[in-house]
Amino acid sequence: MKIILSYPSWFFLFCIALGAIYALTLYYQSSHFNNEQQNISWYKKVLSLLRFVAVSILSFLLLSPFIKSRYIDKIDPVIVFVHDNSESILLGLSSEDSAAYLSKTNQMLSTLGEQYQIDYFTFDEGIKENDTLNFTGKSSNLSHALNQINGLYFNQNVGAVIFATDGIYNQGSNPSYNDFNFPLYTIALGDTNQQTDVKVVAVRHNKLAYLDDDIQIDIDLQANHLKGKNYQLLLEKNGRTLGRKTLMIKNDFDEQSTNFTVQASAIGIHKYSVRLESLEGEISEVNNYFNFYIEVIDNRQQILLVASGPHPDIAAIKSVVEVNKNFELDVQYVNKFQADIDAYSLVIIHQLPAQKQGAKTVFSAVKNIKIPVWHITGNSSAYNLLNQEQSLIQIDKNRENTNESVPYFNNSFNNFTLSESTINQLRKFPPLICPFGSYELGTNTTAVLKQKIGSVKTDLPVLAFQDYFGTRSAIFIGEGLWRWKLHDYLENGSNEAFNEIIEKTINYLALKGDQRKFRVNTSKTSFFEGETILVEAELYNENYELINGPEANLLIKNEDKNEFPFVFNKTSKAYQYETNSLPIGNYTYTANTSFNGKALEASGAFSIKAMQLEALQTKANHHLLRKLSEQTNGVFFDVNQLDELSNQIDTMSTIKPVLYESFKTRPIINLFGLFFLIISLLGVEWFARKWLGAY
Fold it and tell me: Where do the domains of the chain lie, and which CATH numbers do they carry?
């Protein structure tokens, strides 16, 4: 302890002098204490001493003194025990072996606990602070567990980290690449021998398929120590076998790949299973099957083509659309046009308006529902009337004059791409008969094909697109589209180039924008068990601004029609609900709310599948554990050396308490003891003066 002054130390003499002067003046100059008949000489000495001490202390406090104290803190070492709680730990272990291991581990920890504080953790995909092991973790993330321990015990006195695992990790990165601040005493669990086993290693498939598409399912298989045996591979859907193959194991360590092809025959989320019939002597049958889900949607687009009459262009377009099972084409002539076009994703208007056919009903119907439109012009087109019906381009045609134009690709166009072979083929296509005059592109109109007149490349469009407030439209300028199809076949024996241009144009235009006022979705349609499922919903007002004033509800149903009702939580401008407690299976969900007196509803589906990562790799990785111990100055131990581990820790000179020296400085005036001392001195003096009759 040390006293620190804000002023020179000799100032303390002034404090003593002030106390002496005050006491002498009070007691030796006062008439109450100068009367010798009262015989109070000894009282004067005691009381003057009290006043001297009190005044000296008070004046000393005016010098703002501080007291500096020294403290020693003792931090005992901590032993951190981290155990792998994943399913792979029990593979190949009988219940007796696991019970014996747990008994030895508890005995070791009990011995260490007599001398050290022990903190317990278990880990699988995450890490938890507890001492309960049930070996139910669906995956192993060693690097995450070690990084968490690193952070939790940063700058603390950790004597050792005991890390018990089989070294298998199927999530996260290789833990040997991470920096670790404490010595790792690894306990090697599991078996490093390749176990007798046959397993499904991987299944590759499209997560999304279109109705009536063929789906290819690729499967990777692996077999160990089963050379010469045959095994059955089955593909199942809802318990029904769709395919079966017999495969032969040719080597002691054998890897094979095969596939099945199925048809997407129904809309929805479908559960499939790849299953291997078990063989005698397998270490585990958990990895003999793999469940997966494929969502099938109906993406067929209804397309309406309206024309003034028959034309070779119509036949050319129809030949492309009809071979694509995602398109359905309906051809109507303008004199028999039906105005109900809500069911269509795209309207193709061929050479309308014409000079004698204005087609007002067609254009009115299109504008009312804001449907994508593809205008195709030609010799019959009335460009002065067409300018009034669309905003892609304004063409001021110069009487009957025309240009013969060959198309070329605009390299700056990036809304979609054409293959290099098609771009090259464009240069060879027959010229179009295009109107001669001035062209003025509208707002947000971009040309994908432009006119080359003679040897001059112009900016005049042949095929141009516009995206106007979410509604897409296109225009093809020129007579002779059908000639491209014929030339493509004569030149190449196929219509690949022509078909690509038509298909990509239709695909781009028919892609529907989401116009719904209430929308709900999940981040994906397939989740692993225990994974957090986030359902998000959005509500838009008439100006398509996000709002979340009304309450929104969520109803989830499983395959057995059991219902799970929830209420959405509101975020800043939307809604969300998350859960991770639903069991394995297929689910549908419906969200509903009410806005401006209208009931709004949106729905979707998702599936939850089992996580089988722990069964895919059964060979323990003790090499990794040795490397971790070497990198951190720890020690590697086999599972049978638990007694040696506790003895090793006991003999380590580095595992000892740490002493931390600290200093604390505080003003002396804040000491309560000093306050009571001053009060006591002045109180005793005051009481004595009263008793003696002095004031």
Answer: 2-71+665-691 (no CATH), 78-193+619-651 (3.40.50.410), 197-292 (2.60.40.10), 301-510 (3.40.50.880), 518-609 (2.60.40.1930)
